[in-house]
Amino acid sequence: MSTRRALAIAMLCATPAAAWALSWPQVPLPDGTRTAYVDRHIVYNGLDMQAQVFRSSEKPDALIAFYRRRWGDKVVVNRLGAYQVVGHMQGDYFMTIQLRGLGSGSEGRIGIVDVVHVPKHPVLGKGLPIPIGSKVFNDIRYPDDPIPARTVAMRNAFSPRQNDSYFREHLEADHWKPDGRSQCDDRRCTARYARGDSRMLVVSLRGDDGYSQVVLNMQTP
Q1: Do 90 and 140 reside in the same domain of the chain?
Q2: What is the domain range of residue 201?
Q3: 17-38: per-residue pLDDT in tens?
Q4: Are residues 11 and 110 in the same domain?
Q5: Coil, helix or strand for 21?
């Protein structure tokens, strides 16, 4: 995600403000605002969302006043650290504009979340082998990417080597083949797998608290 955001920020100087895709509500933007997509469609732990970054020639107070004029009493404004967050519910979607001052203008992020069509009990990591006792805390899909991708992150008490052995056994049983470029030591294990045109990267990293974080990144054409 950090790479995506860095690329998006780099595009800001060249990309004029644009409307959202037709299936999503349009977030109004004042003149002098430039945007870039972080992702046009993300499924984050079961929530469908869309994300952009922006820069504006307007100062934060002017941007907030702009949205108060557009949305009236249907807007909420809160502070989150160095940012001010403008929120508005429109139909099935909740829109947020998170902004802060930058030079003589502003910068920030725009998010739209479908809050109606939400699974009641999303099963994070569904369809993947999960070591017993693991806590899956992120399951992020990028279904509209040129190559659809998914990233699943979990935490457990196993060592990187134990995690590496577990995933190798279970993935090979599911017809994933290691590509021979695996690396493993007491602190970190990295393994790559292929199944047809699909690719998977499994990284297990031991933290200072003795627990490991495991990240699986998959690309499925």
Answers
A1: no
A2: 135-219
A3: 433 344 788 899 999 899 999 8
A4: yes
A5: coil
